[in-house]
Design brief:
Layout: E1 5-8, H1 13-23, E2 30-33, H2 41-51, H3 64-68, H4 78-87, E3 96-99, E4 102-105, E5 124-125, E6 131-133
Parallel strand pairs: 1-2
Antiparallel strand pairs: 1-3, 3-4, 5-6
């Protein structure tokens, strides 16, 4: 059983790169495809609290529904914004990673490196070819 969880969208390059960086430690995380299995209110609220970030920073402001629902409007309370994320999980930014070292929205994907209890096992490059980890497992 792993002690790392990733809230993952396999269609997102940043999410795929983050998952690959976790696996590059030799660890297989618990992968939650949050669009198929969205978190409930208690879980989402707990994730946001653990990240210590404002609710708006956990939202995907580039999503069409964000603009359609006028979510940039300051009239919405945090509870209302959470309601929107529960009703439209695509609005939840990704990937969110939970480890014994903390919880974080891992954008860019390299942000996950500070959360991983195990070292990188070897070289890693992002899907676009950008080198992130060298052959000795050190950040580039």
């Amino acid at each position: 059983m792993t002690n790392i969880t990733i809230y993952h969208n396999p269609k997102c390059g940043t999410s795929r790169n983050t998952l690959a960086l976790i696996r590059n430690t030799g660890t297989e995380p618990r992968v939650i495809h949050y669009l198929e299995t969205p978190p409930g209110r208690p879980e989402l609220v707990a994730l946001i609290a653990a990240m210590g970030t404002p609710v708006r920073e956990v939202m995907r402001s580039k999503e069409a529904s964000y603009k359609e629902l006028d979510l940039d409007n300051p009239k919405w309370s945090d509870d209302e914004l959470i309601d929107f994320m529960l009703a439209h999980p695509i609005l939840i930014n990704r990937p969110i990673v939970v480890t014994p070292l903390g919880t974080r929205l891992c954008r860019p994907s390299e942000a996950v490196l500070d959360l991983l209890p195990q070292p990188q096992l070897g070289a890693f490059s992002k899907e676009d070819g950008e080198a992130v980890i060298d052959a000795e497992g050190r950040p580039v």
